[in-house]
Amino acid sequence: MDGVPEGDTVWLAAQRMNTALAGATLRRGELRVPQLATVDLAGATVTEVVPRGKHMLTRLADGRTLRTHYRMDGSWHIYRRGTPWKGGPGHAIRAVLATDVWECVGYRLHDMRIVATSAEAELVGHLGPDVLGPDWDLDEALRRLRSHPDEQIGVAILDQRNLAGIGNLYKVEALFLAGVHPWARVIDVADLPGLVDRARTLMLANRHRPAQSTTGETRRGQDHWVAGRKGRPCRRCGTTILLGDQGPDLQERITWWCPHCQAAPVPVDPRARTGGTGSEARRARH
Ligand SMILES: [Zn+2]
Fold it and tell me: With 90 as the cut, is the pLDDT of residue 220 above it?
């Protein structure tokens, strides 16, 4: 669980990369993946580094953008020039962007692409509103979530086409705080805006620090409500925290929840759906 990149991790990394690189000319610009091995970014000036969901966009003054993605295990490390690199073995390095002062080293990065800055939408245009973006749009995120009313909320809230930036940690913690069962359908979540807002609030609270606490406690073992706590007692009610797999094949994510604080939705009676009472009954279980 620890170290799995979330949108706030990418946000913080982009802020630091931007501080180190914006306005500077690259002394080294190596991309160590086969399809980009011949690209040399040395001599290019970095305009800015911006996060977009869990993507990082490094924009260059010559009209190109380098897109990188952390997926599950990637990271950028920033070193003052001349200090040792400690982010992992050399073969895990995928990118080196260095100025006269700073050396930004990307380990285990994924989805590296160089595109025209004007064509960035090809890479990130499918993303929903960015939870930590300056143009965050709650209504649009809700519209996208509700366009798939029968999807499981625990899957829908991770789908970056609905809203961009939320990863597994903030998913499980926000669902707990909102009292929503991970397998509830989107349409059955009584307060969808409240749930999304919970997740965003957690990410905003953590975006300036690498440690991700959702409880307000930073001590290890005290910092999460349910994540990583299978078999332990719920902090609110003492019920044993459960663990399950959720999501389509290959994208399956482990999910923790409290079966008491996050009661399972009432099985759907199709006849009740048209009358409107069904959702009231389900709501009462929360
Ligand atoms: Zn509980």
Answer: no
For residue 127, how far is its CA from the centre of ligand 1 (angstroms)? 33
237-241 contacts at long range (C-beta below 8 A, 24 or more positions apart): 237/261
User: CA 87, CA 90: separation in Å to the nearest integer?
Assistant: 9
Instruction: Report the DSSP beta bridge partners of residue 25.
Output: 45
Q: Which residue out of 52, 54, 64, 94 is catalytically annotated?
A: 54
244: burial class by Cβ within 10 Å (0-12, 13-18, 19+)? Answer: middle
For 55, the enclosing helix (H) or strand (E) is strand 55-60
Catalytic residue among 16, 144, 235, 253: 253
In the reported structure, the alpha carbon of residue 5 is separated from the centroid of ligand 1 by a whole-number distance in angstroms of 26
Specify whether the CB–CB gap between 162 and 144 falls below 8 A: yes
pLDDT at 209: 81
Please indicate whether residue 81 is annotated as part of the active site. Answer: no
Bridge-based pairing of strands 110-116 and 102-107 is unpaired
Residue 35: is its pLDDT beyond 60?
yes
Q: What local confidence, expressed as pLDDT, does residue 122 receive?
A: 92
Q: How far apart are CA 198 and CA 176, in angstroms?
A: 10
Q: Is 252 a catalytic residue?
A: no
Specify which residues 46 forms β-bridges with.
Answer: 60
Helix, strand, coil percentages (3-state) for the chain, rounded to 5, are: 30, 25, 50
